[in-house]
Amino acid sequence: MTTDRTTNGEVPPTARESGSPTADVKVSPVAGHIGAEISGVDLTEPLNDTVVATIRAAVLRWKVVFFRDQRLDHAAHLAFARRFGDPVVLRRRGGASPPDFPEVETTADRLELGGRYGMEHTEWLERRRHSLLRGWHCDHGARIDPPAATVLRAETVPPYGGDTTWSNLAAAYAGLSAPVREFVDGLRAEHRLGVGYQSRPGDDAYLRHLLDHQVASVHPLVRVHPETGERVLFVNGYYLEQIVDVSRAESRLLLELLLEQATRPEYTVRFRWEPGSVAFWDNRATIHLAPSDNAHLGHPRVMHRVMLTGDIPAGVDGKPSQPVTGTAPGRW
Ligand SMILES: [Fe+2]
Q: pTM of the predicted model, to two decimals?
């Protein structure tokens, strides 16, 4: 990958050939460890291979890239994502998702999710929020094969609030001391949907939903990235339940240490959405923080997401993740 860019993350000279459609493509890093803005490209146009290679290299190097002022519809969004992998075809989507595009998931109705289970949104969030770090996640991380990448586009955003933050898990791993890196290299952890949920007294529709749709896998705590070979601290506050083969007390304290490391501000970048903004991230090397500062504002926020299929993670020892329940590779 490093052959495709200069050491400061700029576009390689091959993408700047004068007169080519790639002449103006520019990759501008926006934070020290993560995030780059890509300008000079219209994502509604068919992209040539050089531009695709430039974007791919930037995603692998900077973990999340941002585009502004794109006028993508669902078809163009999907066509762009297809240049980088196989889009996930979703069987279950929210009510606002476009019916003709099973690959596109619309998140407009997230605020109504609690209502589906007979709860106000705030109660639902409170019952799920077992830790302040809970909002940090990679997409579908409890699956045996979490998506490799996500392409998220903003249609309608609030005038303020609703930013998304990402963290670079390869940088977080590299930032650990050598003895701790060596220690965590050999550990594995169970990731489970709905971990830490505090159930309601009496009948609890959300608890029933969780029990009926359990998803859990044992993943290596340190994942070797299949494309870059980097070691990635595979932790998040949303799915991680328990480090295996250690006591619960040990697991709790170790997770606190590792989650704190994974979300240190220096490994993060925060993005302010505008209509037409697109974020494209490597879901294998990052976690992101869903915004929680906009629900009370009452402004609509309509986002569309396409995910690319991913492979089964492997640890430093080469051993793959193991399924626990409700998860089979490639089955959505
Ligand atoms: Fe997400």
A: 0.91
Return per-residue pLDDT of the chain as tens, 332 residues.
333 444 444 444 444 433 345 568 999 999 999 999 999 999 999 999 999 999 999 999 999 999 999 999 999 999 999 999 999 999 887 778 898 999 999 987 666 777 888 898 888 888 988 888 889 999 999 999 999 999 999 999 999 999 999 999 999 999 999 999 999 999 999 999 999 899 999 899 999 999 999 999 999 999 999 999 999 999 999 999 899 999 999 999 999 999 999 999 999 999 999 999 999 999 999 999 988 888 778 888 999 999 999 999 999 999 999 999 998 999 89
Which among 107, 105, 39, 106 is positioned nearest to 70, based on CA atoms? Answer: 39
Is 299 designated active site? no
Residues with CB under 5 A from ligand 1 (ion): 139
- Is 71 annotated as catalytic? no
CA 287 to ligand 1 centroid distance, Å: 8
Q: Cα(152) to centroid of ligand 1, in Å?
A: 9
- Token pair of 214, please? 């359990």
Cα(38)–Cα(46) distance, rounded to whole angstroms?
Answer: 16
Domain layout of the chain by residue ranges = 7-85+113-325
Q: How many A from CA of 22 to the centre of ligand 1?
A: 30
Q: Which residues of 102-116 are buried (b: 16+ CB within 10 A; e: fewer)?
A: ebbbbbbeebeebee
Domain 7-85+113-325 has CATH 3.60.130.10: yes
